[in-house]
Amino acid sequence: MSTPPSPSTGQRPVDNVVVPLKHPGRIVAAVILLALAAWFIIGAATNDAYGWDIYVDYLLDTRIAEAAVHTIGLTVFAMTIGIVVGALMAVLRMSPNPVMRGFSWFYLWIFRGTPVYVQLVFWGLLGAIYQEISIGVATLNLETFLSNFFVLAFIGLGLNESAYMSEIVRAGLQSVPEGQTEASKALGMTWTQTMRRTVLPQAMRIIIPPTGNELISMLKTTSLVIAVPYAGEIYGRSTDIAYAMFEPVPMLLVAATWYLAITSVLMVGQHYLEKFYARGSSRTLTSRQLAAVADAEGVPPENIKVVGPGTPPVSGDNATHTDTKEDGR
């Protein structure tokens, strides 16, 4: 037990000497996991069925690189549709109008209740269902539009994604306390100003993480657009090459490597975007708050030096500095 601080001296108590517990089970488990990983890596490296020579030859093939660009395009266009339509459906879902709420609920029920692969097949068959649309005396020919499978692919993916983004946006908007909106109205802000300056900056902290996950999931879901059918993305192009060579395993590894590389870039972008919108929720204390903590403890913490308005200057070895430092950070 540490000695309690003396009111007269204002010294901090002596810290206890803590001996960490030993966990031999963790060490044994770590050794087993490392052994299994080494066994798998060595076995895969020496197994000719993986076709590592073919993997190296086709990893940077121009056809695969072009397919990666198409995959990114599908992902960006589909997520744009998903976010825009999803935000609209979220607003309709929270509308006091029962017709709008009912339409939003029916939309979500259809697109969340059916598999995305089935929806993509339907979009591919749309050209056989609708050749033209008659609007009064005018007739709109849909043959050219419905024969563009790239457009049909990202529209099908985007509308499916919008059903999930709607719930994400709705959860983010509802996470902001009602008092924030009332305070904005009291300051004379319009609805647009309230959403832009008050609600959305706070809601984005809730919206960004699941949206990042949906973006990464969308990147991988593009491998299903073969159902449209569109085979210009990474998986479709790699399987085409694999069928021509009768070597499916190395081409699957090529596709997996490209997916991992693009996903890694998206994860880094998501990290910095989350960090940007989390600035307002930081627990970093100001100099006045740190000084208040020091007053409450009787003496300043040993690992923090405080300077700020209202704090008296200290000379000598105990002089304070403008920077703060925390142990282990």
Automatic annotation (TrEMBL):
InterPro entries in the cross-refs: AA_ABC_transptr_permease_3TM (IPR010065), ArtM/GltK/GlnP/TcyL/YhdX-like (IPR043429), MetI-like (IPR000515), MetI-like_sf (IPR035906)
Annotated TM spans: 27-47, 67-92, 104-130, 142-160, 252-273
Compositionally biased region (Basic and acidic residues): 320-329
Gene Ontology MF term list: transmembrane transporter activity
One term under GO cellular component: ATP-binding cassette (ABC) transporter complex
Pfam families named in the record: BPD_transp_1
Cell compartment(s), UniProt: Cell membrane
Biological process annotations from GO: amino acid transport
Topology of this chain in the membrane: Multi-pass membrane protein
Coiled-coil regions listed: none
PROSITE patterns per the UniProt record, alphabetical: ABC_TM1
UniProt KW keywords: Amino-acid transport, Cell membrane, Membrane, Transmembrane, Transmembrane helix, Transport
Domain ABC transmembrane type-1: from-to ranges: 68-272
Stretches the record annotates as Disordered: 301-329
Listed NCBIfam families: HEQRo_perm_3TM (TIGR01726)
UniProt record similarity statement: Belongs to the binding-protein-dependent transport system permease family.
Name used for this protein in its record: ABC transmembrane type-1 domain-containing protein
Species this protein is from: Corynebacterium terpenotabidum Y-11
